[in-house]
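Quick one, probably user error.
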């Protein structure tokens, strides 16, 4: 089966394949865009185009869309769906995001979902809560297939640093729309006065540099006002290896999200044994048992929840860290599930 995977060059998609054998599923590589995005060389998606579908219809059997259609208008998505229908190619859509983390106004993504979810021949999502929401909103059944591992199997067993003082980290990255980190940093700084732990804040250079697209003067001022015991690291995008080392350097990674659905960041932390503190929204807490949680009151993290998470972050660490053999078996199951879904979609077509 030749799959036009949109995209292909992303760790989630790459880990849908069978790790042990050729199962007959071939995912086409991403065509190179004219101006690839930093950190996402597969974007903008060349395959996400009706003309590409018509021109390359003989090269694939099934079209599997994941993400990366943020800038595509619903009318253009309609055209893409029509092109697939005209060419007799089934559409499989994995609903990663029921709320797009890059878009402050949810109506844009909702309009895209209103095209894709009804049109797909088969739907996949990552958690039972997301499947239930899809059923409520569109009356469609989605296959629930868990998120695969993110970190390589060999990296899962790398020893973690031994520390006497817990280390808590919050990464602002490039300040995408669903991040609201300043209230959370304030809550963590308040906890520094009550207990002993290290607090480290990471942020990408583009946020701190005037003239850059993601520059945020208010964030710059806030970070510069933090007490000296808070470590602030400014850097460019980490490589994969640097990111795994970053995760291992932390006992707790805090996700300061104001909205969202699922998290690959959470999965990577699970792979290396770093506890995660995530808000009680979306379906983060259904990805794995043991995710620590906090509630938002009028957009502010609840102080009691932060304190409880800091109390709990060292408990049952061995139960939280992924077992490489379990992740390997899960990877095999995920590959088999996708093959069954593809086979069914092609049979129906």
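Nope, works fine. Designed sequence:
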């Amino acid at each position: 089966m030749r799959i036009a995977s949109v995209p292909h060059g992303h760790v989630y998609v790459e880990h849908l394949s069978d790790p042990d054998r050729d199962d007959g599923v071939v995912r086409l590589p991403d065509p190179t865009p004219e101006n690839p995005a930093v950190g996402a060389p597969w974007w903008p998606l060349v395959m996400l185009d009706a003309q590409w579908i018509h021109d390359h219809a003989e090269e694939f059997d099934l079209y599997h869309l994941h993400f990366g259609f943020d800038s595509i208008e619903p009318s253009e998505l309609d055209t893409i769906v029509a092109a697939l229908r005209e060419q007799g190619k089934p559409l499989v859509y994995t609903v990663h995001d029921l709320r797009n983390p890059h878009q402050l106004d949810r109506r844009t993504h909702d309009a895209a979902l209103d095209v894709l979810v009804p049109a797909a021949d088969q739907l996949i999502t990552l958690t039972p809560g997301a499947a239930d929401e899809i059923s409520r909103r569109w009356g469609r059944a989605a296959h629930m297939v868990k998120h695969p591992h993110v970190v390589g199997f060999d990296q899962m067993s790398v020893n973690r640093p031994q520390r006497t003082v817990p280390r808590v980290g919050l990464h602002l990255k490039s300040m995408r729309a669903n991040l609201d980190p300043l209230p959370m940093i304030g809550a963590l700084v308040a906890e520094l006065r009550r207990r002993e732990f290290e607090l480290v804040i990471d942020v990408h250079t583009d946020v701190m540099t005037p003239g850059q697209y993601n520059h945020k003067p208010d964030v710059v001022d806030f970070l510069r006002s933090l007490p000296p015991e808070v470590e602030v690291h400014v850097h460019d995008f980490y490589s994969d290896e640097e990111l795994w080392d970053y995760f291992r350097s932390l006992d707790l990674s805090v996700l300061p999200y104001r909205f969202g659905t699922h998290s690959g960041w959470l999965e990577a932390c699970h792979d290396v044994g770093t506890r995660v503190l995530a808000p009680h929204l979306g379906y983060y807490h259904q990805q794995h048992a043991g995710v620590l949680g906090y509630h938002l009151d009028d957009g502010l993290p609840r102080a009691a929840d932060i304190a409880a998470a800091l109390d709990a972050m060292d408990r049952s660490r061995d139960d939280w860290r992924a077992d490489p053999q379990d992740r390997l078996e899960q990877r095999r199951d995920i590959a088999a599930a996708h093959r069954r879904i593809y086979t069914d979609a092609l049979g129906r077509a």
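The chain has a mean pLDDT of 96.
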